[in-house]
């Protein structure tokens, strides 16, 4: 009888323990980042500094390489959350998707590319691009659309005044520029700084500074996922906001040391200078709120590039509930 009582008590205790673990356990979130980039420093900080962990979240981060692949993976439930350009949510919406992607948190608020020239251009002007071979980005992607927007702002038609080549895949653009007959290219950091250090190219302008504030990269999830996981999305946004504030207050070298595991082949000083460059031009969003003015600027850039499929209202594809809550708490 004592053995039976002891077994019952042990069983009850085990059930209580398992119940407690079930209610206070960790939620796993799979994230697909469109590329691996220093541009996404605040997200890596949120992982490495334990901000997600503090909210009871376990992050499974994978690089999905390209906007099309990232959105396909999200829509097919291969990931829970996508880190990708906001323009992709407009493309999906325009295809009459029944369960489209909703933007709920912003990560970067400027373009992240730099204009790199093959030769040094100490007196560079945008007029220098006329007649030159320019290795462009993917049609319909934010780097290309912002690039066209900036060139037009300076009176240069990207399709008439320069020899624009958009035939190279995103991942192969740096090597194609280095080995090919191109005078100009758009590159993200740290690749732009690597090229400058090696003498392969020279940074002559920043598209981020030229194009102004825009919801360049952010987090989105399918509406169905957000409906079922409101608390998880809120915790995610809260962790991100902590990281964004931390990045603003932390020096570039410290940040470089934290994110260095994500860039094992990149020199720490070069990482720091890349992060400093992004900090100086306010590329990292200071909070997760994607505001309406930024959304309108995004549509303007897409429209001028001839890539806006329809005029999608801000309220349709942007959910500010989570961002506003973490900011105001």
TrEMBL record:
Record localization: Periplasm
Pfam families, alphabetized: NMT1_2 (PF13379)
Gene3D superfamilies assigned to the protein according to its UniProt record, in alphabetical order: Periplasmic binding protein-like II
Keywords assigned by UniProt, alphabetized: Signal
Family indicated by similarity: Belongs to the bacterial solute-binding protein SsuA/TauA family.
Protein name: SsuA/THI5-like domain-containing protein
